[in-house]
Every structure is written in C-alpha cells, then in structure tokens.
User: Fold these one by one.
Assistant:
Number 1:
Amino acid sequence: MFSLNGLFHFISQVPPSSQLGLKYLTLLSTSNYFLVVFLIELVAGLLLLANCYVALALTLLAPILMNIMPYHVFMEPAKVAPSVFPTILWVLLFVRERAVFRGLFQVSTPALS
C-alpha cells in the first residue's frame, strides 16, 4: 500500500518534524531515488502476496527496511513505531524461510591453490 502511495500519492503525508529528516527526504525525492525504491517495494510485495519467490522478495526488502529503521531511529524517533511493524513481519517471514538462506550463514573456507 505504501509503495503504491509513493508512486501515486493518494494518502497525504505529514512532513518530517526534524530539519535533518526533511532535508534527507527532499534529497531522495528530488533525485528520483524513491521511484526505484517504491517500484522494488511494489514488486516484492506482489511476490509475497502471490507466495512465489518469497526468498527473492525478502532479499529485495531487506536493504529497504535497513534504511527505513535507521532513518526513523536517528532522524524521526517519535515516529519509529510504524517502521517496526514491517520489520517484525519481515523477520517472521525470514524465520519461516530460513532454510533457503542457510548457505548465507555458513563459513566457507578459502580454496587452496
């Protein structure tokens, strides 16, 4: 829903209360960075809703969530709660799909030549 809102602006947004947050979001908006982020969010959300390529969708959403959380923690701490919910949902899905990601958490030994 929020990715669609980012693309079509049908829900009014309250501007950030901090000057730093406002500058940050203005920069991202004017550079069209958000266009790419919202498209990735939309594709990942559709993949999750269709219950296909769930691991790919989680992989696409991880860096986005890892940018949303620090933004709210450091620039908009009063509004951190809405960013916690999608992060919790992501973690729950990740735990459900952890077998797919098992190889990421294995230590590999360097090949001897």
Number 2:
Amino acid sequence: MRYVSADEAVSLVRSGDWVFFQGSTSVPVIIQEALARRHNELRDVKIVSGFNVTKGVAPFCKPEYKDSFVVNSLFLCGDQRDYVAQGYGSLIPGFLSDLPGLMRRREIPIDVACINCSLPDENGWCSYNISADLAQPAVEVARVVIAQVNKSIPYLYGTAMIHESAITAAVECDDPPVDMRFGPPTEIEAAIGSHIAAEIPDGATLQIGVGGIPNATLNGLMDHKHLGLHTEAMTDGVFRLMRAGVIDNSMKKYEPGRSVASLALGSKEMYEFIDHNKDCVFFDVGVTNDPSLIRKNPNAVAINSAIEVDLTGQICADSIGELIFSSVGGQHDFMYGASLSEGGKTFIAMPSRTGKGKAKIVSHLAPGAGVVTTRFQTQYVVTEYGCVYLRNKNLAERAKALISIAHPDDREELEREAARRFGLVYHRLSMMP
C-alpha cells in the first residue's frame, strides 16, 4: 500500500465526483475532515453515505460549503440531517436491498470510495466488513479507493475484503469504532420487549434493529433455544445471546451455523468477540436484505419501528410529516422476506407516545409523511399496552385493535375518528365486548 497523509489522499477527489463514505460506527472521519479542508478548491462534490453513527456533524456539512459539497444521503442520520433539512442536500429513496445494484449499474455513479479497514493479513487482505452494507458495492465500482488502514478495526469474515494492492491511497490510523451500547431498558421499553419476546418461538431466525426496544426484546430471549441471526446490524444484544449459546444458528437453512449481518455496532467487548470469529459472516445488503434469502429460514422474525401508525396499519418510518428523518432502510426487505418464511412473523414496535407526549397511533398520517410499510404488509403492532395482529382484519377491525394499544389518553379521540371513517361497520364492533 502507498501510505500518505489524509490531505494527500483526498487530493485524488475532483470537482463533480461522487464520493462514498463508509458508515455504521466506522465512518472514516479523518478522511472526511481532510476533504472538508479542500472546500475552497472543490465544487459540486456529491457526498453519498448510508447509516452513520458519529460523534458529531459531518465536517463537510456547513452552509458556507454549500457550493462545494452536496449531500445525497441513502439513509439520513444525525450527522447530516440538519444540512439536508436546510436544503443543502437530499435523500435518494430506495429499498436497502436495491441500493447495491444501483451502484453496480452506475445509476449511483461512485467515483471515489472512502473506507475504514483492518490491517492486512499475512496475504495482504484487509477487512472492512464492519460496514459491508453499502461499502462493498461502492468499492467495486469506484475509480479511486481511499482507506483508513486502522489498527482498531476488527478483522471480520465475509465478502467486504480488499487486497492492499487495490487501495489507491492508504491513511494509517488508530481510530476505534464508536462505542455504541445501551443501558438498562426503560419501563416502557421492557414492556414492549416482553410482548415481542413472548411471540418468538425457539428456533426462530432474528432480524432486529438498534435501540432500546430491540435491546429489551433481546434481553427477554435469554431462555430461548437454537435461535439464529440473519440481520443488518450485529449489536451488543445479539452478542450476549451468541456468547450465551442462545443464538447457535442450528435451525437456519441459509448459512446454517453462522450469524449473518451486514454491519456491526456495539461495545469494545463485542468487537473483540467477533474479531477473527468464523462463526460470523458479513455481506453487503444486496445479500442480507434479499427477501428470497430471508424467506429460506423458517420462523424468520423481523422487528422494526415506526414514527407513526395510522388506524389502517400504514407505517411511516422515514419522515416526520414532510421532514425527512431517515429512510426506508431494510424495513420493507425484512417485513416482506419474513412474511414469506414458513412460520415467519413481523413486528412494528414503538412506544404509544413520543418523548414529548405526541401520539404515535394516529387517525391519519401527518401531511407529507411517507408510507414505508403499506397496510397490506403489516402483521403485528406492539406498544407498551400490548401486541395486536392486523393481517387477517378488515379496516374497522384494525382500527379497534390499534386503539386498544394506543395511549389511554388518546383512545377517545381515536374512537371518534374511527366511527366517522368506518361508519356502521365500526359502530357494530364498538358494541361488542
């Protein structure tokens, strides 16, 4: 490898280039900072990235840099959210499973891929599987690959591997991935987690997200047996189940015996556990999120969240009204794939209200809100007040079920809206015990 300074490495970026930055907890911030220092020299550089966990705002997201850097986010996160909200960038919508194909066909034409990889092994191969999700296709098509060759990045097995000879410019560093762990669940999170855990059978294969509710759900699975993992994010919660032998992947049909993920984010202890661990394998999201592969595992379970759910079961998970908050991510991929699995179950889990006291079960989605999961796909919806199954219910029955798990102070108004909207059918239901 040709080791250079970060400033020399980013001299390979040209005005008008599409520049991809790896995400998860391994964002190559040193390279981002160096690129931002070139703001006076560059114009119209399109920044592309996905799910990012960083300690602050991305260095290129300053209003005074608006002519230099345009954000084209594939999954909007806190490091770029305000910049996009101010109109200095936008979101490229797409199912996560489709995005690698868009890169490989150059519909999203990546010119420069910036990654955070491990030290090379004895054969010269570096691993960047800590965030294989979108980084792998970006590296495959890029004209230039700039890598932070990082002493603190774990060596993970899978398909996001690059030989040192294929790295255009290497920046030596020792920058540990962000430590992302969660404390004990709140009372509300614990209640939601227990409702979901009660519905998960032994032998199920899990897809589970990041946050307090997923963590609480995983805490409730310690007495389960022979669970499998086929997910996007490997977290501390699943690491604990793997270490305890609860997740042994013995019942899986796709990659039996191995935990499958596309990225890792957790504590230092988790990173040490999965480093050089051949029982874990990481692929890009074109593989992990492929519904045809997800469905191969019996009893596939997908657990996702929502910003709002309306009375018919429409799920908004990407925006607050018209303000883009994140994206579809893998919710659709796993909700669809798990629903096709033999014995599969899908869950939308959320508190009944936001931290500011706003209802999350609503009569209608907010104006401009995006529908991430349609009413035709929704199975279970869970709040701290219970778990309801919608798939076999008509619209009026769905409304009654969802109202039963709404916050008690919101139910009266929701009842009025349901009666107005669904008329006699709902009136008859309301007369039933």
Number 3:
Amino acid sequence: MDVSLKRPKLRWPLEVRMVPLESGEGDQSESQAILMQCPLGISSQPLLLVPAVGPLLSAFDGEHSVEEILAQFASQGLQRSTLDELITLLDAHLFLAGPRFFAAERESVERFRSLSIRPAALAGSAYPSAGAELRSLVDGLLVTPSSELKRGELKCLVAPHIDYRRGGRCYGQIYPYLANSDADTFILIGTSHQYSRQMFHLSSKDFESPLGRLPCNAEFVSALATRFGTERAFRDEYLHRREHSLELQLPFISRVRPGARIVPILVGSFHEALESGKKLDRFDEYTAFVGACAEAIQQERREGRRVCFIAGVDMAHVGRNFGDESALTPDFMEFVAERDKRYLQAIQAHDTAALFAHVAEDQDARRICGFPTMHTVLDIFEKLDDRVLCEVTRYDQAVDYQSDCAVTFAGLALV
C-alpha cells in the first residue's frame, strides 16, 4: 500500500449521498446504497457501497492510521483484508487524496486549460445530445411573453438552472424576453456549485452545446480580468468544466439569440460574509470585481455597444435531502413561498442591503444558491447608476415529498 494511504483521507470535492436501489427488497437500509461520485468529472465512474460502510468512511479523514481504524471497528468484525480492499477500491476510483488522484487532477486541469472551447458536459444526461431533439424540446417550452418590452430595454434576464423536467415552464416563459434585447454582449453569470476560496471565476472559452457554439467576447473578458486581476480571475477557471448553472442556459440562448457573444462568469459562496456579519463592501475581492465589471461595461457603452446580463440562478433548497432535520410539509412550503416573496421583493426594489439582510437574518437557512449572483448583479447596476425595474414572470416550487427535497426558482426580467 502507498505510504500516503496508510492514513486514508477522502479527497475533495466528492459527492456522497444515500440513494434508493430500484430492485431493493426487505427493510429500508437494504434497499439503499451510498453513492460516491466526482462532481468535477475527474473520476468518471461512480461507486455504490453498502450503507454499513458509512461509519467507516467517516474515519477516512487523514488523521487516523489504518491500524487505528482497524482497532476502532474491530468490535464490529472489521478485518484487515476488508479494510485494505475498501482503501484499494476507493483509491482506484480516485476518491482518496493520494498520488493517483492528484496526478489525475493535474492532468484534467491542464487538459481543460488547453482548450479554446468549453465542451457540453451535460449533453445526453441533463438534456438530449442530438441537436434536432434538443431544438424540439426547447421550442416546445418557449411561449409568448405575457408583456412586451421595448427593443433594447432588457438589462438582465434571470432564469433557473434546475433541470428542464422540473423548471422547463419557467425557462420557457422568461427566455422569449431575450429577443427584445439588442445587446452586443451577454454576461452569462451564475452559481458555482463547487467550493473555492475565490468568489469569482471567469472563462475566456467559447461554450458549446448540441445547438451550436456561443462565442466568448474575449476582448471584454480580457478587459474585465485586467481590471480585476488576471491571476485570480482565472485561478479556478476549471470550475466551469462541469458547472450546470451556465450550461443549461445555452440551448435557450441559442434558439432565441443564435451566435450571441457571451462572457462566462461563475460566482462562488458569500458564506464568510454571512457568517462574520461583515458587509460585502468589506471584502476586497468583491468590491474589486463589482468595480471592474462596472468599468468594463461603461467602456462598452462609451464605444456604442450594449451589454445584457443573463443570470442562471435557483433559490431555496430545503428538505432532509439538503440537511434539514424536519420533513417537508405543505405548510412549510407555504412558509418558504412567503420568505421567497420577500427575497424577490428585495430584488425588485433594487435593494442590496435588504437582500443581504434577508439572507443573513437566518444565516441562509433556505440555502439560496443564487443570492451571491443576484447581489453582485444589482450592485453592478448601482455602480453604473442604472435604476432597474423588475418583473417576475413566474415563481415555481419543485417539491418531492418522497425524497424530501424541494427547490424553488423564478424567472425575472430586469429593465
């Protein structure tokens, strides 16, 4: 066994959750399994393990030696051969922090950096990989807007990033508004679901989908990165590789504004600000990015070009599936709807202070993944001295009481 594996440690990032087994019979524990998979796609093969392994995995923290783990679980019948077999299996799947994983990670990062195009990561899983089938799906969802905007008025379109099965109607009601924009560049901004110490992640790559390629406005990205700081702007560009918050927007943009030039930006967590109680203007990275983006947009405007934001964001994530202790109920979802209404009212009022206070007052108990993105966009408008009006086209809740999982989302047009 490699020396580094003598104190086995589950690597990061890694998704570990319980999933039902379709053919399971007997009691609940026998019909479930632990699913382990890599959210970044460094390891392409998921792994299913029996639930009894769960407590053992918790000891894989890099602090306990193989001998210590064996002694800890000896009373439960753990044998050295079984422990070695599990360590070997996890290492083979690149789920342990060891030489095998780190080498694969370096190779994957360098391979992505060398690409000029960000390939479609979800085609064939989250949506059809065949262009004709995907085109039919998107066209079937798009509907006539309930109200009309004058040409050129749209400053920001807010769409979900939940899957099309649950969020399709919301996508279909908001995206027709994009036809009213005469923007030259669309800042495609959304949630980064993978942790990073950085708040903002730029990409200078074209983005591809089965409906064609959306070219990146490399000049705008370069101007923004120069103002913000090139090294930190692209330090974690790799997070774009499999992120779905932007990718799920591409088919709709391609149908409504084919060939649109984009500026891909991912926004990370504002957890440190919420936990510390410090306002975001106390964080240099935040203020530097907002200022840099506002300046880059102002330069575009001075040269006679228009810029529009497209935000791919969801709202609340609640239920035991997301770590809540209590099961979902219709009454609780009504409470969530009322809280979501207040969140949306802060956006409609263009009130970043109220938006931050709303999320901070319960330490983001609803896990609003789109909050950092929306706060950033509204703040940029404030720096530009743009007063925007906001129309909510649709609010939805995707609730699954069986799996105890609920996600809420909305479509918004900011003019």
